[in-house]
Amino acid sequence: MKILMVTRETRSDQRYGLGRSLAPIVEEFQRRGVEVGYLCQADLGRRAILWQQRLLALLNCLPGIKNTPTHFPALFQVLLERFNMGRLAAKLAVTQKYTHVHCHDPYIAMSLRFFLRFYLDHKPVWGITEHGFGCYTQAIHEDGVHLGHRVMRFMRHREANILRAAFWVIAPTRRGVSQIAHDLAIHPLPAHWHHLVHARPVVNRYSRKDARNRLSWNESAIYILSIGRISPVKQYPLLIEACAKLKLEKEPQLVILGEGDHSTLQKLAQQSGLTREILFAVAEDIGLYLCAADLYVSASASESFGLANLEALVAGTAAVCTAVGGVPEVAKDGALLSEPTIDALAETMQRMLNDPKMRETIAQQGLARANAWPDIIEITDRYEAIYRQATAG
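RESULT FIELD:
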């Protein structure tokens, strides 16, 4: 068995997103003597990127793409990235004789399947993990690429076809698997579809005092931490507005670990009446921030799983999360759940911050849930079983 993992990640995505869940699996397979390749956008050559940019410019000049319900320039960018990754994955899979290709995006898989047709001497088995909650077409739409009705319907049809053709389809929660089937009108649930959670993450643990000393945080503020890239689906504006509604003895200090354009959020914080500027940071040691924070908050509009939420539970940090997507299935009683609205989130955060005993109870429940979570060995065993089943099939 020789496995190629393929994503469309950038380096920042690897720091805060998919890469954090895949890297331990790759390491565990390698420990078992299984060769695993890992392919992302950073592996694209200069010529491939130049080709992608030129084709994007050409597509954006097509007549009729302006003044439509679909934001075609952004959609072309999304699809070309994945098309390019699928092309490269097909080439490497054949030339380096990979037996399994695991695409972490259905549109990468669509491109892979297309290009594999040009190679006759080697045909690896391939499958897909869907990392959005529900179908990936809907996730693209929710992440800020507006899709009109006709384009949405066409892309869902293509996504359903590629999922039917895959040797395996994985989503990180049961609710996620059911939602994909519902979105794409695939019934009954295919036997090669699986729910497979992310393994319990390794998070560095610190005492609150030590963590705050390392970060130079003092006791003059209430530190509210959120983690994730700056994107519409994370709903940071909603979190900012909710923080502005809090009535606390100490000033709230919002801290966001995530890469992206911070300027708009900082401006909104000033307009909303937050007296402290948001602290933005990029960090490899997530545990340091979690152990220093008074409260961890996720305000996402959608989450297929919510790895940062699970990391908060592992760190023993009191957590408030919006009850969206797969979050209730993952967090259960380890976090206080809220509706994804400003008033509901502000009220839930206020309850937690007003009641130290509640925060301690939620944190302990979260820690107990995290301690019972499957570790990387169990999860890698599941992956290996899926891969071997695909080969046998």
